[in-house]
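Dolichol phosphate-mannose biosynthesis regulatory protein
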Amino acid sequence: MEKAFSVILLSLYDVVMYEVSDEKTVESLWLKLESLYMTKSLFNRLYLKQRFHGIHLSEGKSVQDHVDEFNRIVLDLKNIDVKYDAEDLGKLIFFSCVLCCCCCCSFTRPDNAVKIRMELTDKAVGFLLSFISLSIFTYYTFWVIILPFVDSDHFIHQYFLPHEYAIFIPVFAGVVLLCFLCIFIGFVKLKSKKKKA
């Protein structure tokens, strides 16, 4: 029994060891650990879920250590009856490794982490704008080129404006864009003149 007691104590973190330092027997030690870390209380669930969703591969930590820590948290969650789908577990471990590896390998300073977030945001905005442009282009192309060959009583015509608008809308958009550019250029010139004066 003393060997079991010693093995359990040696496998504990220092912080945990302080919590159970008063225990003298294996049974009391085990019960104390169970009451501290295996309870199904709301606080314990929240704490483990926070650790689970906040896990990341920090700089200088090996991937094996990271995976071991991840598996420990998953086992702790299973012990309090919180289960995750294998697919979700795979996604989380993958993204916690990949994103942090990218940040740690080539961008080690905190200000570079902000740059990474900004770059990701810029890429997302660029993707969204490209998607919107492609959607408008596809809609307009179908409207102008393909729709005239479809029977006029076909239901698809209800999703499109009359053909007169196919010319009116681009001309109107071009005029609005030209006006906006003229106003912008005029505003910039006025500002530069005020700075010179």
